[in-house]
Amino acid sequence: MSGTEQVRELQVELGDRSYPIYIGQGLLGRFGETAEKHGLPKKSPILVVTDEAVGSLYLERATASLAASGYVVASHTVEAGEQAKRLESLGDIVTTALSAGLDRDSTIIALGGGVVGDLAGFAAASYMRGVRFVQAPTTILAHDSSVGGKVAVNHPLAKNIIGAFHQPEFVLYDTETLATLPPREVRSGLAEVAKHGLIRDREFTAWCETNAEKLLAVEPDALSYALREGCAVKAWVVSQDEREGGLRAILNLGHTIGHALEAVAGYGELTHGEAIAIGMCGSARLAERLGFAAEPVYEPTSRLLAKLGLPTSLPSHYDTGAIMEAMMHDKKFRGGQMVFVLPKAIGEVDIVKGIPSEVVKEIVESLK
Amino acid sequence: MSGTEQVRELQVELGDRSYPIYIGQGLLGRFGETAEKHGLPKKSPILVVTDEAVGSLYLERATASLAASGYVVASHTVEAGEQAKRLESLGDIVTTALSAGLDRDSTIIALGGGVVGDLAGFAAASYMRGVRFVQAPTTILAHDSSVGGKVAVNHPLAKNIIGAFHQPEFVLYDTETLATLPPREVRSGLAEVAKHGLIRDREFTAWCETNAEKLLAVEPDALSYALREGCAVKAWVVSQDEREGGLRAILNLGHTIGHALEAVAGYGELTHGEAIAIGMCGSARLAERLGFAAEPVYEPTSRLLAKLGLPTSLPSHYDTGAIMEAMMHDKKFRGGQMVFVLPKAIGEVDIVKGIPSEVVKEIVESLK
Description:
Two copies of one chain form a homodimer.
Chain A: E1 8-12, E2 19-24, H1 31-37, E3 46-51, H2 52-68, E4 73-78, H3 87-99, E5 107-112, H4 114-126, E6 132-137, H5 142-145, E7 150-155, E8 158-165, E9 171-174, H6 183-200, H7 202-210, H8 212-216, H9 220-240, H10 255-265, H11 272-289, H12 298-307, H13 320-329, E10 340-345, E11 348-352, H14 357-366
Parallel strand pairs in A: 2-9, 3-4, 3-5, 5-6
Antiparallel strand pairs in A: 1-2, 7-8, 10-11
Helix pairs in contact in A: 1-2, 3-4, 6-7, 6-9, 6-11, 7-12, 10-11, 10-13, 11-12, 11-14, 13-14
């Protein structure tokens, strides 16, 4: 990258599928030069997939930069929100891709949050059995999904159940786009940032608590630092276990309960970050209840999340039976056993198998 | 494999994704022991995907064998025919998979022809981002799709445009199922068998011509030999180039024109084998017209195909403009250039780029 602004860079190490993440102010305006640097072919059209909310603000900026570098660019805009992540949207993207003449040397770019990234990424993974993919995240939450190559769409019965592993060529993270995020989305994104600290970095966890106000105020330096540290934790885990053979599952801290809450709430009522914040509190309680935690984990976890403006308990009208049912459908259960990621300490987690469902039910109740 | 019947075996060499193809009479009745031999987990349910035509004849035989070995087996039946190969069918399979409790250690089995193989294979590739896959082909044509791991569904604008590469654990080819094939499907399947000879095996091509009557009569020994030889050619090519970087494209002999004919005809009017038979005649003519062929190729190609009961010319009502248009949409075109697989001799082909579309148009006209 050239230019005078500071650009933080992080390399995700995955052998011949390694790729860099660029984080900095104004990077969308340098999309074209970055694409050239990474050798995206100019003979084949590029398709930018975005949603209505992000597209109206940033699509022009991204495509103008690419066009200025000599790329032929088409775009496809989906509705904003989780409901765009379905098989029908994939079919619609392919319609646009075919009409725009995308071939095997083409690139599909995701410009947006995690929903757009997952959807466009699955389109890139499956269009002609796989074309190049680039991520341009526009939310804090997407720092998580921009590392690791997990892409998917939802099914009415389960989230992220139809997908692939497909690594991007590079990730272009323009922190300017975060300034326009609604406060609730900022908080939701910070839940995943906090998760990465809780998983593997005690020091960064403490830093997040100290700097919670700056983060909530979307202060560029603090945010840029937090995004890079969050990405670094995830990148380390993914580089150890690209295909989720074992270790990678630690990234699911808070997600077993969290996904169930989202399913029961109906997609969209709880944000993803809110759901996993409650889920992380549940995991901490479970770790203490089972005697797995070597130090108090619930109090510091819930204190950090509360400082980040996130919920730490469950709205009382949620039905425990429905939540348990939703967990049974979750793809993190193998052969009927209940598996959880539990904190041993702040900054250290492990995967614990064979947890009795009655204990889980008790914890879910205790979160109300 | 145990038992007294002769089982022909062929290993597809793909490093840690290598797998065997078993070809023989009555193999569906030994599905359970083969699954055990390959270590398919018994704790996780298996889903057999089939179509109405095949399922009514063979589903019970396959599931009974698996159940006898202690597997929990669910099934999903799609309508017979190419129209089942669409995204909606994938969603339906996932509904069944979730209801049956399939998890990451589960296996999806394709019991049927190429359509079922491609659809169930894409389901296996994308369900939970990939579960185990087994092919049990019940057509001659499927000897082709059972090697190489290319799986996909169609889009209204293009065939096989949404898919993945996903190798099976093993292929179980029960030649008894071929006895119930309609004569037109036998001929269609033999087109792909002949294609494999024309690509790389002059001797096998001659054998096919000599034994055309036995093959058309579905004589078990002849057919079993032909399937193994056909699979062997394809397996050799695929093992050299799993992800279709270059060489693998030679398998598309006859497919550029063939796919266009299928698209123009509407899926189903021409069988796939009929379409590529005409396509291979076109490629042979094109090779002679461009001076690429080192010996006469059109006459022996069309003679072989005619002996196998296949069409060698184009129905005159087909619109040349529409065929050309369909070829432009074909994913085998990179950056707008026309690319064809052309025979240099019988049993030897190569990929030829930069062919002027006017010459292709002339050849299409000459096929009428």
